[in-house]
Design a protein that fits this description.
Helix content: under 10%
Shape: elongated
Oligomer: single chain
Structural class: mainly beta
CATH superfamily of one domain: Nucleic acid-binding proteins
Strand content: 15-25%
Radius of gyration: 25 Å
CATH class of one domain: Mainly Beta
């Protein structure tokens, strides 16, 4: 359906194992499978924790394999989840929490990472990458449409006047002009947006010389 994401196909949220279900500060899990989630571009790994009797979805890093064992609070290696204070300087990290037990919030996209620049007593300085780098451009319009459709986004995007009146306030066969952005200075809060008591709006036309 238009304007509605196909969330019934999503596998779930990407999370870490809560600290309440860990054995102290450590936990061990096994990569059950690496699958594609329509909700995101990066592949996700299904991690099963036998001790906690729970499975989580985590963004799969490059080099992770099915059947590999990962650890929480252990040595820094591919797939392990550790605190930033334990990561050596110069190593790349991803899926960073903004505060303890917040879950991965930063650098979750494909190809995104951050580098540890410096470690202090209370703070860790990290540097973010430039973002995702596409190896090939999005040349096929059909492929682009399927990617946007999986997230409930419109493609191709046209102007408002080209839409129908059910899809956009500016649409319709009558081609009615859009409403003015000028609002009264005495408008109530919430409606006082746009050009507030503007003397003039629109393009400035040069005066004709006679």
């Amino acid at each position: 359906m238009q304007y509605r994401a196909q969330s019934h196909r999503y596998l779930g949220a990407v999370t870490y194992l809560p600290s309440q279900k860990m054995e102290g500060d450590t936990a061990k899990g096994v990569v059950v499978d690496i699958v594609h989630d329509p909700a995101r571009n990066a592949p996700v790994a299904i991690i099963k924790f036998e001790a906690a009797r729970e499975s989580t979805l985590q963004v799969a890093p490059e080099g992770l394999q099915v059947g590999q064992e990962i650890e929480y609070g252990s040595t820094p290696s591919v797939g392990n989840v550790i605190a930033l204070k334990d990561v050596p300087v110069g190593m790349n990290v991803f899926c960073i929490e903004t505060f303890p037990n917040s879950g991965p919030k930063l650098c979750r996209g494909p190809g995104s990472f951050a580098s540890i620049l410096n470690r202090g007593d209370k703070f860790v300085t990290i540097q973010f990458s430039n973002g995702r780098v596409l190896e090939k451009p999005m040349a096929k319009a059909g492929v682009h449409w399927y990617i946007k459709s999986a997230r409930g986004k419109l493609y191709p995007r046209v102007s408002g006047v080209a839409m129908s009146n059910t899809d956009h306030p500016y649409g319709g066969r009558r081609k009615t002009p859009r409403p003015s952005k000028n609002v009264s200075r005495n408008a109530p809060p919430g409606a006082k947006v746009g050009s507030i008591a503007a003397r003039s709006s629109g393009r400035k036309h040069k005066a004709k010389k006679f």
